[in-house]
Specification:
The protein has about 625 residues and is α/β, with parallel strands linked by helices. It has helices at about 10-20, 60-70, 95-105, 125-150, 160-175, 185-190, 190-200, 220-230, 240-260, 260-295, 305-310, 325-335, 355-365, 410-415, 425-435, 440-445, 465-475, 485-500, 515, 535-540, 545-555, 605, and strands at about 175-180, 205-210, 235-240, 320, 345-350, 385-390, 390-395, 575, 580-585.
């Protein structure tokens, strides 16, 4: 075999060095973080580009348009904002809220819904579609200008023209347009411009508001709203689809039990026969009374419907919570004008998602006819359902109409934005803590929220982190590093608020809010934070060390040797009788590290375990 060359064995190493080892790296002057286009690397980024472009992607088209418009884009880095949890993050101050309410009152006339352009039988489909698209674009442009110029936050209104076309069709063919609103904040879900548009289409049409979830309100609160809508001149009815559905379930269960046991079925049959006999006798007495009244007052004979239903058009709104049969009678007799279809009255049902529109229709029909969803877009087309021979329900897809709001947290708490798609939970939970008192939260969840530290207002509402730390630890929602999971806890708490388990209702403008909605007194005996386990106390705190612990740690430390009489840390130095320092023998004591057993090596996670505590 021939002798190997000297350079042959170093070939691989030399290739690695050439590739990775000694290549000069480009360094930016002054160690600044500049964009690639700002480096003087020999390429002229601003030179004229003469290459022909016939097709380009949407991103390149965007950059080219920006270049034509003279707009520059620069990369921003290190723009990190540190958020202090001890403040009202994402909420407006009292002064800012007053300013926004003033702006809302000034521009309430500009809060409109899109109108359908005028058309007749001679208008072609293409011309009508073109006019609708143009009117819709103008409407969106006006709302965008209002948001940008006045810096007003609005609900994420529907931007698909097809959904608004369904609304136009529902309004055109309905005799009564019913807006279904949430009883906890009716004004947010009410569209005044929709009522104007209904009258623009036909002055004979009737507007009505159905306040759903009214079981969450007291009789006094419903009376306030009935008086307010009386002053606004609009018919109002109070209803609860949840209560009706629960009643229907109980009736179905009772019927099932009656079918299974013949003896109970026989008793039920006897009760029904007795009830029918009583009803017949009451009808006979009623006819006798009507005959007597007709003889006494022949000109003022009320009809049978007026005797049973005092809540007719022209009467004042009633705060009574209607049942299913009462609401059907109410819808049957509320409209007396010319009908779109002579055989029946058409009731158009319009409302936001998550206000209970589909649940209301299902409770009236006693069976599930409409799919229920809190997300807009579940119902694609309007549906017609016969409630009775003379009542036709026209269900419109759920529409988010333009409305003024203060913050996105307000939209989350009102169920307009889905909680599962929430990115930032801190503002919404802060707003919830301002609306729901501390003792109500503690009674509801059986938790102890950390008290404000020294120097802060003891009566202030808890911050979001204080509530979520206590709730997450109590429910066992922990992250991988042993801390309470605040994001998961926030979703549970916010859903309890939206579902009404944490109740807060806004009153009409004419009533003071503190008088309209009052909270119950504390039910549980208050617990002091010191009575809880130490681990739970540390998990509940935002600051892991309190002022009391800092004082104890400071004063319990050993003082310096300069203030100690007697032996010091220098054993080979002693104090003479005359007060001078005398050095002793520099023997073994002079080197204290000798003959000492070395420390045993300990695992670092055990050595620093105190740092991992909550």
């Amino acid at each position: 075999m021939g002798k190997k060359s000297k350079g042959g064995s170093n070939l691989g190493r030399q290739l690695i060095k050439d590739r990775f080892g000694h290549t000069p790296r480009r360094k930016v002057d002054n160690d600044t973080m500049l964009h690639t286009t700002e480096l003087q690397d020999g390429y002229d980024w601003g030179r004229l580009n003469l290459s022909s472009v016939t097709e380009e992607s949407s991103f390149n088209a965007f950059l080219r348009t920006a270049e034509l418009a003279g707009t520059e884009f620069q990369a921003e880095k290190l723009n990190i904002t540190f958020v202090n949890p001890k403040q009202r993050v994402g909420l407006l101050s009292k002064t800012q809220e007053q300013q926004m309410h003033k702006k809302h009152a000034e521009h309430v006339d500009q809060l409109k819904i899109p109108r359908r352009p005028k058309w007749n039988k001679e208008t072609s489909a293409e011309d009508l579609e073109r006019a609708e698209n143009e009117a819709f674009l103008n409407w969106r442009r006006d709302l965008a200008m209002l948001q940008e110029d006045e810096e007003i936050l609005m609900t994420p209104y529907e931007k698909n023209l097809e959904f608004w076309r369904q609304l136009w069709r529902v309004v055109e063919r309905s005799d009564v347009v019913v807006q279904i609103v949430d009883a906890r904040n009716p004004l947010l879900f009410r569209s005044v411009d929709l009522e104007k548009y209904v009258k623009e289409v036909d002055s004979n049409k009737l507007n009505m508001i159905l306040v759903n979830k009214s079981d969450l309100l007291t009789l006094e609160q419903r009376q306030h709203w009935a008086q307010y809508f009386d002053s606004e001149g609009i018919r109002t009815a109070f209803y609860s689809a949840t209560l009706v559905e629960e009643e229907l379930k109980r009736e179905a269960e009772a019927a099932k039990l009656a079918a299974e046991s013949p003896s109970s079925a026989l008793e039920l049959k006897q009760l029904r026969e007795a009830a029918e006999d009583i009803q017949q006798s009451l009808d006979a007495v009623e006819h006798t009374l009507e005959a007597i009244e007709s003889k006494i007052k022949p000109k003022a004979t009320p009809s049978k419907s007026e005797v049973k239903l005092p809540r007719l058009p022209g009467d004042k709104n009633s705060a009574h919570l209607l049942s299913r049969t009462e609401l059907i009678d109410f819808l049957r007799h509320i409209y007396t004008g010319p009908r779109h279809t002579k055989q029946h009255v058409t009731i158009g049902m319009v409302g936001y998602p998550n206000v209970g529109k589909s649940s209301t229709i299902n409770s009236l029909m006693t069976v599930k006819k409409v799919s229920v969803s809190a997300t807009p877009g579940k119902t694609k087309r309007f549906q017609t359902l016969f409630l009775d021979n003379d009542i036709l329900l026209c269900d419109c897809p759920g529409l988010v109409m333009p409305s003024f709001v203060l913050t996105k947290a307000d939209m989350l708490l009102n169920g307009i934005l889905p909680i599962d798609q929430m990115r930032d939970h801190v503002p919404a939970v802060n707003l919830l803590c301002e609306r729901i008192p501390r003792h109500v939260l503690e009674d509801k969840y059986g938790i102890v929220i950390a008290k404000p530290p020294e120097g802060e207002d003891p009566d202030r509402p808890p911050f979001s982190e204080e509530l979520l730390l206590a709730y997450g630890y109590n429910r066992g929602f922990m992250t991988s590093n042993g801390q309470p999971d605040q994001a998961r806890s926030a979703r549970y708490v916010l859903k309890d608020y939206v579902n009404g388990k944490l109740l807060f209702a806004l009153g009409p403008p004419s009533v003071v809010q503190s008088e309209y909605h009052t909270f119950p007194e504390r039910q549980r005996k208050p617990l002091e934070e010191s009575q809880l386990p130490g681990q739970q106390q540390r998990a509940m705190r935002i600051n892991k060390s309190t002022s009391k612990e800092l004082d104890q740690q400071f004063f319990s430390a050993q003082p310096s040797v300069a203030h100690v009489k007697g032996r010091t840390n220098f054993p080979h130095v002693r104090l003479a009788n005359d007060g001078t320092l005398v050095a002793g023998d520099a023997g073994p004591a002079a080197k204290p590290w000798r003959n000492v057993k070395k420390e045993r090596r300990e695992k670092l996670r055990k050595k620093f375990s105190h740092l991992d505590e909550h």
